[in-house]
Structures
1.
Amino acid sequence: NAGVTQTPKFRVLKTGQSMTLLCAQDMNHEYMYWYRQDPGMGLRLIHYSVGEGTTAKGEVPDGYNVSRLKKQNFLLGLESAAPSQTSVYFCASKRGDSSYEQYFGPGTRLTVT
Amino acid sequence: KQEVTQIPAALSVPEGENLVLNCSFTDSAIYNLQWFRQDPGKGLTSLLLIQSSQREQTSGRLNASLDKSSGRSTLYIAASQPGDSATYLCAVDSNYQLIWGAGTKLIIKP
């Protein structure tokens, strides 16, 4: 039981390049989330999903797209990376309604030059 | 709009002391509140989750309280150890989303 895994762990992009971050969970959780964490700040929600085939915008969705084609996977895409997207990205999942805790992946450190 | 604040931003105490970390939130309509620990360059570890109907939760040397009416939660750490040094984050579950404080960086001096 691996929990929540994220691929890749580190990545460096040039401005304008695109990439996809993969989040996978093996706990059969319904809800999945993508956050970003900048230095000295708490996490901010980018997008989330309450079930397979659904996605919704969070607090800071601009410049990102997501897809949840399979229940266990939640993909975060950057179509045209910008230096402002340099951050640590965390994925999380939760079993169901709001009575349950979120479980987090180890994070992806992204640098855009 | 829900806002979460953690004070102080940093705290340094000698080993063995008991200490309290504070978390306040502006909207009392929450489902639950979670406390997390984050070590430098690492992911997040969930410490305690308090449901909105509960007043406190305990795990080992940690005790978290919740007062929804005043919009406050505290994390009490008993008999602190150097291994407790980390950043502690609180987050409130509000309308499908976790809203986060910026964290308190805790240093326990041997």
Note: DSSP finds no helices and eleven strands in chain A.
2.
Amino acid sequence: GAGVSQSPSNKVTEKGKDVELRCDPISGHTALYWYRQSLGQGLEFLIYFQGNSAPDKSGLPSDRFSAERTGGSVSTLTIQRTQQEDSAVYLCASSFNGVEPQHFGDGTRLSIL
Amino acid sequence: SQQGEEDPQALSIQEGENATMNCSYKTSINNLQWYRQNSGRGLVHLILIRSNEREKHSGRLRVTLDTSKKSSSLLITASRAADTASYFCATASGGGADGLTFGKGTHLIIQP
């Protein structure tokens, strides 16, 4: 597609379950970013992928969060043993070779019951 | 962590008026960007200004940057109802590995 695609658009799950969020960047964009947007914390940067390089995971909120990017394209963000504080909108963005601007998807709205 | 602080937090004006939003940040930057977010949607990039630039225009948008004061402003002229949205400033300090650092945003309402 023409833009960054994220799925699912909405996810409701019970506390303690694992969830997997998917991001399909713009074709040809080598850089991919994950952000979290919540009422209390605003927009937070989580992790960045450049091509197939190993990412810096220090921005992830806890060790329950992990992310991978297969073949330098699609990325998944996985949250294990979800907690209520994980409820937020998870946004993905991509850019050409890490050069601004970043192009954002519409996000996945995650609700933990 | 939040770097930018926008003010005002909320702004309501009449259609046709100009809207000005301000952003302050804390650390040195490579560039500063403004994004718009409509309810339930992702962020749309509006304009980027580099640290060695002082002013930039794009259509009805005008952005200024004062690196000595670590502040920026976004001016939307001749506002339209469709401009109703939240506006965020975001700073880039290094390479892509740091991501963007966003402010808390200004919610702009244009009254028809």
Note: The beta strands of chain A are 5-7, 10-13, 19-24, 31-38, 42-50, 65-69, 75-79, 88-96, 99-104, 108-112.
3.
Amino acid sequence: EDQVTQSPEALRLQEGESSSLNCSYTVSGLRGLFWYRQDPGKGPEFLFTLYSAGEEKEKERLKATLTKKESFLHITAPKPEDSATYLCAVQPNTGNQFYFGTGTSLTVIP
Amino acid sequence: DAGITQSPRHKVTETGTPVTLRCHQTENHRYMYWYRQDPGHGLRLIHYSYGVKDTDKGEVSDGYSVSRSKTEDFLLTLESATSSQTSVYFCAISEFYEQYFGPGTRLTVT
């Protein structure tokens, strides 16, 4: 069964304190792994797509990496505006469905 | 921002009444999706469309139907709303792999 597990559920960081969010997945062949950011009351906002193990993508203070079993979203020197829920999703290479994790709620304290 | 709108944005309805939610896109993307988001479950796929009049079921399709008569519009219908369908509903569009989400519709069934 295709599934995605994110950890931790919630994370509180001091401003400038770097950390990582984890996304573990089980899928029968991976077409792509996706990271999204979701602010309260809004729809998810696309951040990154990763296709194969060893791939890395960066955007400002965020860096996403991928292995055969999990992905990490590294946040370097976070700022309060990085506070949001970060969602991970996978798309198997069969069919058109996407499977989402339940997210990590990140709070960055000034 | 991707051109996706959802209507209505908020709706309160009574158990047993029919409800239709609308998703409209201006991006001419081929794929359109309906998700529901509930605490502890994350985003779950209800139905998706891969072209005009071409639709398929997702993992939580019971009690929902969809229609797509034009590229730009994807309708989600609850034939007879139940309290378990109280949720936030998101539409998403996709041309290749990454999805872009609308602002959501908060539906309350009393």
Note: Chain A has a mean pLDDT of 95.
4.
Amino acid sequence: GDSVTQMEGPVTLSEEAFLTINCTYTATGYPSLFWYVQYPGEGLQLLLKATKADDKGSNKGFEATYRKETTSFHLEKGSVQVSDSAVYFCALRGNSGGYQKVTFGIGTKLQVIP
Amino acid sequence: GAVVSQHPSRVICKSGTSVKIECRSLDFQATTMFWYRQFPKQSLMLMATSNEGSKATYEQGVEKDKFLINHASLTLSTLTVTSAHPEDSSFYICSARPVGGATNYGYTFGSGTRLTVV
């Protein structure tokens, strides 16, 4: 079945540091890939997405590129802020019909310190 | 944009009672809604998938008699935790897929419900 492997946190960075959160996946066919963010006490928000190989999703300074050859979708940001402190989930959704459920990674907690 | 409202955001109930959680799509119709459970420091686990007007499909290991799901309209799905026990304490979150929603878009999530059973 589908699976998402995500680096476990927590990740602690100083403000303005470079961020990388690794994510790799296993799926049949050509899934859509997502990064969701969960701020403390809140639900999930879609951060960015990519639907086919070599697509780059970007939002709020975050980027991730759909790499089919390495089955990866690593999240990057050049300069993190304290307000980026949250839990980040990598996810995929298959495109093979049916209910197309979303499979999540374990989530990576990011803490940015001033 | 698409908004999903989940209510209540927090609930504390006594062991043995039942709790109902509502998930509403506010500005779109949702063919399919998904219910997830999130344990502390763990990822979201899909519990069940509900389609309007039909029985929910439960994931393996999820007790359908304990977690009752009703998707009575295209804008409302409910999850009822029956005879709740402390081990049911968790964060429950729903997501919705729009009618005719493109397959390459993420689903919209509610803000979640923190259930504490005492």
Note: The CA atoms of residues 2 and 27 of chain B lie 6 Å apart.
